[in-house]
Amino acid sequence: MDIEEIAQAPHPTGSEENGRVRAYLTGRMAELGLNPSEQAGALSERSVERLARWGDEQAAERQITNLIGVLPGRDRDGPAVLLMAHHDTVWDSPGAADDSTGVAAILEAVRAIQARGPAERDLIVLFTDAEELGLDGMRLFLDEHPLAQRVGMVVNLEARGGGGRASMFETGPGNAQTVRAFTRAMDRVEGGANSNSLAVLVYENMPNGTDYTLARERGIAGVNLAFIGRAHQYHDPASTPEALDRGSVQHIGEKALEAADHFIRADALPAATNNAVYSDLLGLVFIQYAPWVGWLVLAAAAGLLIVAVWRGRKVGAVTFAGMGLGALGGLWLAISGVVLATAMRGLAGPSMSRAGSPELYYAMLRRLPWLEAGVVLSLLAAALILFGSAQGRRRLVAGRLILATIAVLTLYEFSWVILVLGLVAVGGALYSGWMKAARFSAWTGLIALMLVLGVVVQILAPTAAFLIAWPVLGAALAAAVGGLIDPRLERHVSLWPAVIVTAVLGGWLFALGHWTFLGVGMDLPGVLALIAMAAMLARPLAPTSRRGLEILAVLAAVALIAGAGLALGARIIEPVPTEGHAT
Q1: Which residues contact 324 (CB under 8 A, 6 or more apart)?
Q2: Residue 105 and residue 247: Cα distance in Å, rounded?
Q3: 263 phi and psi, to 5 degrees?
Q4: CATH number for the domain formed by residue range(s) 2-289
Q5: Which residues form the Peptidase M28 domain (predicted)?
């Protein structure tokens, strides 16, 4: 297997092991008829400095060495497809995942493409160097190689971890046609396309990038594929071929094959048009539409909510005052959720900016599963409180929120924002009038709040508005149907719409929250608060009896204590190593 050959040992730019890897890859590319060639160039000053910090005493003398090959198509002059990964690693990791998996997947994809017969256009295979140092290899290719002028589509393979499903997390500008073509290509892969436009928006605003990021900045269309599970293996000595999830290797390989094959055989490559809103729904269906359609989704949700409110008001089950209290409860949940989630992060370890330690960064990657469990449990506790379990326990809830705020300010980092949010959350807990709103009133008020938030996001970031619009539409539909059946929600059958939308959309929110948390949750644990939107779906399912509320109160306390224990225990389970990783 190619990965075993490539990832025998760390092979950073300029090292002897890197030379061995390049020689092996050159031979494999020649076997596949790619007629490989090398492109050499100088490292940037920043990359030289980083290589020197890794202990390379000859860093200033090192050069970039890209490997390039071409699988010819019928049209030798038209736009070509670039299939790429990087062959270098950080100084202390064999890089079985990052990015030996990508390199090996490309070699296998080329073999499979050849077996399918001649294609319409050229397939350029590029194995870049110095990606880990500062994307120098890709920059060299784009600036100086003549083939760069012919690139019309890029398929890039990456990894940030040692497993998980491969997803498309970055595309180029005006991506509607690219996403549509990619989705069609993924019909040949088990599970189909799994991606969403939220990931693209988030990644574009992150400080780091990959080789494809440079191409995207130059307006070149493309798809960036990666898996990010088993985050503890990222840039770690444990990233060995034996530790890899073979299913993940197969998954990203299949996606790379079908995407590249589709593009090289297409009559025309996708053009830049408008950005699309898109997401898969639990891997079952893939939905894509223009951003303006989001207004129709929100309008439909508003119409259904009006039906629910009209039906509820006819029998006195909904009052505007009660809706206001329900909306206040939703605000309290959002604010308290951020405070509690950040408190869990503080218990698990200080912020990166406060610690300034690369050792802590990699330790926190290993702590992510424990931190995620702690955050989820804390949000569950907040949701149970929202459902009325804290009635009569205002001071107890307020005390927990005070402790959470203190944990953030002392263990994580001082933040005026968290201080203000913590004070608001404590004040809301002491008031607690929103806990006493009638069930249908509270539900419709919470939906109305989320509808307003959806409108705001639709205005500011329309490609991410689906995250709120779809759950709001589902909740409004459930409220309308349930209200038409029994506006007092006393008959069990009237609750079944809420059960169904909670199971479907709640599961989708949880899956999306998990994937987002793996990507950015280390210092933004509040992103998991999006799964708290499931409370909007499940609000009418809360018990109304005193016995039921007492049970919820116990569960809320247990969840919060267990979450704090898991987050704090991560410090012991995954301590900061005495010797650091790559910086």
Answers
A1: 445
A2: 12
A3: -70, -40
A4: 3.40.630.10
A5: 66-258
